[in-house]
């Protein structure tokens, strides 16, 4: 696993319940691996946004921020968040409604007991991390 560079992010992960922390660390790995494997994304900045671990294409500016998090109100669930003013969730819902669960126009929601559907998630992550580049190319 890639080492953390931001102590605030480390503290945030350490604050999650152990079972949720393992799951969120799995999402973190998937995001970082997908970024590395996706052409044009470049280095990912890992930071906190809205108090949650966030992954930003700050150098290439190719994509939209991807966040991960957990809410006490739903203790067995955790989520991957996308900017609500994009069409990302709408696109993901049209492609993966049988494999993924969604919350409004901003999140893919998981239960701690479920297996992660890695292939659809890799697609979603890559689409988010290249969102601005792909949007410019389609104009």
Q: Can you tag this structure with a few keywords?
A:
6 strands; 139 residues
What's the SSE blueprint?
Blueprint: H1 7-15, H2 18-37, E1 45-49, E2 52-56, E3 66-70, E4 77-82, H3 88-96, E5 101-103, E6 107-111, H4 118-129, H5 131-137
Helix pairs in contact: 2-4
Summarize the structure in words:
The chain has 139 residues and is α+β, with helices and mostly antiparallel strands. It has helices at 7-15, 18-37, 88-96, 118-129, 131-137; strands at residues 45-49, 52-56, 66-70, 77-82, 101-103, 107-111. A six-stranded antiparallel β-sheet has the order 1-2-3-4-6-5. Strand 3 and strand 4 form a beta hairpin. Helix 2 (18-37) packs across helix 4 (118-129). The protein is globular. 28% of the residues are buried.
């Amino acid at each position: 696993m890639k080492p953390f560079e931001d102590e605030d992010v480390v503290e945030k992960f350490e604050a999650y319940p152990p079972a949720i922390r393992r799951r969120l660390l799995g999402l973190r790995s998937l995001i970082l691996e997908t970024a590395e494997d996706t052409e044009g994304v470049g280095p990912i900045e890992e930071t906190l946004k809205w108090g949650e671990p966030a992954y930003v294409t700050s150098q290439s500016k190719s994509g939209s921020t991807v966040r991960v998090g957990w809410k006490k109100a739903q203790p067995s669930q955790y989520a991957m968040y996308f900017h609500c003013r994009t069409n990302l969730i709408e696109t993901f819902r049209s492609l993966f409604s049988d494999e993924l669960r969604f919350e409004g126009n901003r999140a893919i929601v998981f239960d701690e007991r479920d297996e992660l559907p890695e292939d659809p998630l890799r697609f979603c992550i890559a689409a988010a991390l290249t969102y601005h580049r792909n949007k410019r190319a389609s104009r």
